[in-house]
Structures are given as C-alpha cells and as structure tokens.
Amino acid sequence: MITHRPRRNRKSAAIRAMVQETQVINSDLIFPLFLIEGKNINSEVKSMPGIFRFSSDLILKEVEACMNLGINSFALFPNISESLKDKYATESYNHDGLYLKALREIKRYFPESCIMTDVAMDPYSSDGHDGIVKNGEILNDETLEVLGRMAVAQAQAGADIVGPSDMMDGRIGYIRQELDKEQFTNVSIMAYSAKYASAFYGPFRDALDSAPKFGDKKTYQMNPANHREALIEAQLDFEEGADFLMVKPALPYLDVIKALSDNFDLPIAAYNVSGEYAMIKAAAQNGWLDGDKAMFESLTAIKRAGAKIILTYFAKEFAQKSR
Ligand code: PBG
Predict the structure, then answer these.
(1) CATH of the domain at 80
(2) In which domain, by residue range, is 253 found?
(3) Considering only CA atoms, which residue is closest to atom 3 of ligand 1?
(4) Pocket of ligand 1 from Cβ distances under 6 Å
(5) SS3 category, 243
(6) Buried/exposed 292-318: b ≥16 CB within 10 Å, e otherwise
(7) How many structural domains does the chain have?
(8) Angle at 167 between CA 164 and CA 169, to 5 degrees
(9) What is the pLDDT of residues 121-178, one digit of tens each?
C-alpha cells in the first residue's frame, strides 16, 4: 500500500498554484540597459535578439515603457567610442560624458526609478580590461583609485546603487570609504562577489565592444571550478560593507547562489548573463524549445536557489508576459 502520494498535491492547477513555493515578481528584477552615443538610435545586439543599444534620448523612452510595465530597476552599461578609451579609463568619470549625462537625465525624469551603475574600467579601457595594465599585469591597488573616482562621479549623477563588477581585491571597502567621504552614505553597493571568468559574457562584450585586447580575465575573475573561494569573496564583501552580494553567471552557478543565501543574511542577487539569454533565444528561434517557458523556468529556478534579486535581459519580456 502506498501511504504517501505526493502527486495529490499536483492534481489540479489550483492545488499546484497553492503549493507553489517560489514566485518571481517584477520587483525582483533588474533590467540591464545598453547606452550608445548618438541620437534616435536603437541598434539591436546581434547575439541578443530583442535587446538594443539605445542613444540617451531613446533610453528615456525605454525606461518609461518598462516602468509602465512594473519594472523599476535598471543596470546601465555604456558603449564607449574607441577614440575615448585610454589606459586609465579617464572617460569613466567625465561628467559631460555619455554615461553620467544619461544617468542624470534618467534620474531627473524618473526620480522614483532605481538605477544601478557599473563600476569597472573595461568599457572605457583601451586594453579592454577591468584594471590598469602594466607589463601585461592587471594592477589591483592602482585600479582602486580609478574605481573610487568613478563611483563618486556616478553617485553625484544620481546612482542609487553602484555595482563594482571588476573583482579587484578590497574594492568594496575602498569605494564605501570614498562614497562616505563625499557624504554619499545613502548610495548602496551591490558587490559582484562571486563573478566567474565565464564564456557566457560573450554577447555582452559584443554589445559594448569591450572584449579584452589581450589575454583573459582569469587573474581577477574566479575559476568556474571553485565553490569555497566564493564564500571567501562574499565574506570579504560583507565585512567591507556591501549591501547586496551577487553571483554571476546565474544558471550554471545555482549551487553558489544557494551557498551564499545559506551563509549570509544580506539580499542575494544573481546575474542571468548575456550568454544565458542568447542560448534560450537562439534555441527558441530555431524552434528547438519554447522560449517563454524556458524563460519562466530559468528565472524561477534562479530565485528558488536563493536569489532574491535577478539581473536579467528577460526583465521587460517577463513583465509583458506574466501580466
Ligand atoms: C564588465 C562586465 C561584464 C558583464 C557585466 N559587467 C563582462 C566581463 O566581465 O567581461 C557581463 C554581463 C553579461 O554577460 O550579461 N565589468
């Protein structure tokens, strides 16, 4: 005789919904947006169907459209002209540059939006790396100074959350100190705590033309084989004053998301990256899987693993399709 029949809790849609443990909602999501120089430009990223690089006039319209759908949080990334890049990423704190100007505009028109910025040198670096390069080496402490200037400039332009994505050592503490010195005690820091040296960032680097000009990012981003190291990174970011801890990418690293959520009481975020988006879109376009179902399942799985916040290129589509 079978006494336990778990299938009873799956027998109707009503019961399945009643016992459902995890539900992704719009307010969990942060929508990454790509910014590009020019006017009236929306150019689709080839490897990311449905995702566009917007000039600053059109990015305002995109923010408005998303907010009307219930997506209020955005992560802003710039595509910087090659001619403005240099070894020290000086364009990253240029108040009249593309990024900071657009940020000020977005916050002026949509003060109730939540804008997260990217604190890293790579979009502005002529070397395409996240740090200052000297004799082929990525310098740590010298890079921190640039990151500090960048974070303060972003705070001045209205950033709600700064997101150091470079994996240099000590950056959370340094940025917190620099922000506080300038009275930006209310600006939050989302630490890219466990960011792996991943092949899944390919389409993002296409979108920003930000691929490294030589070598790879393995001396700063983590080895995909490592789990315990993620706990060390998260512990340091926690102690240095991070407000959120992030794991990136998301789907191949659900165990890491779970580990951080079991061990830390800060909100955990996961970055469902460009390659994860591209895989689903490519397969769906080929008719190889149902793209909508794969989207809902992926986001639900990421939240189930322990991520309260999900950065995802699906954010707008999710909001449209889950109404
Ligand atoms: C750069 C940065 C990257 C992403 C976010 N910030 C790429 C990289 O580290 O090379 C990737 C995001 C994505 O793939 O969606 N600091």
Answers:
(1) 3.20.20.70
(2) 25-321
(3) 201
(4) 118, 120, 122, 130, 165-166, 201, 204-205, 217, 273-274
(5) coil
(6) eebbbebbbbbbebbbebbbbbbbbbb
(7) 1
(8) 105
(9) 999 999 999 999 999 999 999 999 999 999 999 999 999 999 999 999 999 999 999 9
